[in-house]
Amino acid sequence: MSREQQAVACARKAFETGRSKCLEHRIRQLKNLRRLFTERQQEILDAVKKDLNKSEVGTQLYETVGLEGEINLVIGKLKEWAAPRKVEKNLLTISDTVYIKPEPLGVVLIIGAWNYPWAVTIQPLIGAIAAGNAAVIKPSEVCVHTAKVMEDLLPLYIDKELYPVVSGGVPETQELLRQRFDHIFYTGNSMVGKLIMEAAAKHLTPVTLELGGKSPCYIDKDCDISIACRRVTWGKYTNCGQTCIAPDYILCEPSIQDRVIEEVKKSIKDFYTENPKTCPDYGRIINQRHFKRIMAMLDDSTVAAGGDNDESDCYIAPTVLRDVKPEAKVMQEEIFGPLLPILPISGLDEAIKFINKREKPLALYVFTADDKVIKRMVDETSSGGLLANDCLVHYSVNSLPFGGVGEFTRGQILTVRVLEPLKQRSLDTLLVPFQFENVTVTL
Ligand code: NAD
Fold first, then answer.
1. 223, 367 contact by CB (below 8 A)
2. What is the pLDDT, as a whole number, of residue 395?
3. Which residue, of 107, 190, 236, 253, is most buried by count of CB atoms within 10 Å of its CB?
4. Domain final residue, candidates 211, 234, 268
5. Are residues 318 and 414 in the same domain?
6. 111 CB under 6 A from ligand 1?
7. Integer Cα distance of 441 and 443 in angstroms
């Protein structure tokens, strides 16, 4: 029996004991998981620093704080969520008891990605534990140090028979995929997403695919360009652009392109100093393979800012590209790095056409002071989430589902739309470590 087969068999046997279904057991496991984040915080922070050069506060803000919040939410709500729910009856069943009882699926496989390694691996684990499942956890091998910390620490805190960790790379994942699971939750790129679906089809296993894609950002000329660019700069260069919902490219009218470039440059300097390479808040590309992939996208575009790089350090400066053509290399696939192409278009009509001609985005951003522009974007486009006048923050709203729609972004089943133009938010204060100031959008 291979190591992977053993892990699945062990999780299946533990699931069959029925202990994962017990509410107290689920809550105890979640509390233990929460304890891991407080007791072993330094090991977590050190490993993510080594993998992605993320600052301590960055890892807390984007990974562990959210996970602790998710655990708290689940612990608070679990009894209610797990309780049978009465449903409406018909004439025939009027005197019967009719209800829906939530049941765990069984043994779940969770395949994590490397860009927010804790968030994308542990978030689905919280759901799997909460719903009473066993889960085989496969951290991404690409974030070498974090994968090791997960492999070492998770078994010390949560039931290691119910939730075994399998480390390794592609062959190990492929071996896992040959096994039978009751659900597969995969985060990563869409090419591998297709392989996951293919493997799952053999056993008719349901899948959740959290994929990526190109998320457009339309900046209307009628908006506070300085604030818009400050927020786009934050959304783009956080984690060195390696964020699934990072604004991938900007669409704007030629008349504001120079202003947009100047404002993005100003914000880059504010956030990451004159020399981002030595700024502790600026990350690194995960490895040289991705470094080369990103650098190759620069070939046929004009650099308006940044462009410095150092392969030995996996460093690429925050970079802005101007007058980018739709046929340019940088527009052919998700960038997943710190390059920000600007594509001049004639206005809102063309922006909508441009967006609709391509795969449906995971996230779509629009910056404008005009509610009618927001309404048209909402009514005339389709995406996993639409956020007006900010970047990324819709991900933080627990009451919204998160996921995509269509080819690149098949995720969960719902389309989320965040409509309200955001004015001053508490999150701006939270972001102070990244040198954000309290800002107000004037609409
Ligand atoms: P990755 O290279 O870590 O791969 C993800 C997982 O797939 C790993 O565990 C790896 O072992 C496995 N894998 C890789 N090749 C495989 C193969 N041939 N067969 C079977 N398994 C294989 O991560 P990545 O794909 O580079 O991740 C980045 C992508 O993830 C981006 O496209 C990003 O947008 C997307 N992403 C999406 C979300 C979301 O929530 N929608 C979140 C984070 C990242």
1. yes
2. 84
3. 236
4. 211
5. yes
6. yes
7. 6
Domain match, 162 and 259 both = no
- Answer yes or no: are the C-beta atoms of 291 and 232 closer than 8 Å: no
**Same structural domain, 166 and 302:** no
Q: Evaluate: CB of 212 within 6 angstroms of ligand 1.
A: yes
Q: Tell me the CA distances in angstroms from 400 to 94, 121, 386, one per residue in order.
A: 35, 19, 12
Which residue is associated with the tokens 């070939």?
299
Predicted confidence (pLDDT) at residue 179 exceeds the cutoff of 90: yes
How many whole angstroms from 193 Cα to the centroid of ligand 1? 8
- State yes or no: pLDDT of 382 exceeds 60: yes
**Nearest-atom index, ligand 1, CA of 244:** 34
Domain of 90: which CATH number? Answer: 3.40.605.10
**Strand spans (E) along 118-221:** 134-138, 183-187, 207-210, 216-219
Q: Are 288 and 339 contained in the same domain?
A: yes
Q: What's the CA gap between 3 and 151, in Å, rounded?
A: 14
Q: Is 70 a catalytic residue?
A: no
List of residues 6+ apart from 4 with CB closer than 8 A: 166, 168, 172, 175, 176, 179
369 and 227 within one domain: yes
10 among known catalytic residues? no
CA distance 409 to 362: 6
Phi, psi values for residue 99, rounded to 5°: -150, 165
* From 131-145, 257-271, 320-334, 418-432, the region with the lowest mean pLDDT: 418-432
Residue nearest (by alpha carbon) to ligand 1 atom 43: 244
Tell me the per-residue pLDDT of 231-260, one tens digit each, with 9 for 90 and over. Answer: 999 999 999 999 999 999 999 999 999 999
Asked if 161 and 285 sit in the same domain, the reply is no
CA dist., res. 33 & res. 128, Å (int) = 13
Cα angle 317-319-320, degrees, rounded to a multiple of 5: 170
Q: Which residues contact 319 (CB under 8 A, 6 or more apart)?
A: 298, 303, 305, 306, 307, 338, 339, 340
Mean pLDDT (the chain, rounded): 90
The rounded distance, in Å, linking the Cα atoms of 64 and 383 is 27
Say if residues 13 and 161 touch (Cβ distance below 8 Å).
yes
- The total number of structural domains in the chain stands at 2
Domain that holds residue 307: 216-442
159 shares its domain with 231: no
User: Which of 63, 70, 210, 334 does the annotation list as catalytic?
Assistant: 210
Residue for token pair 């922006």: 351
pLDDT of residue 183: 96
Q: Of the given ranges (117-126, 260-269, 401-410), which has the lowest mean pLDDT?
A: 401-410
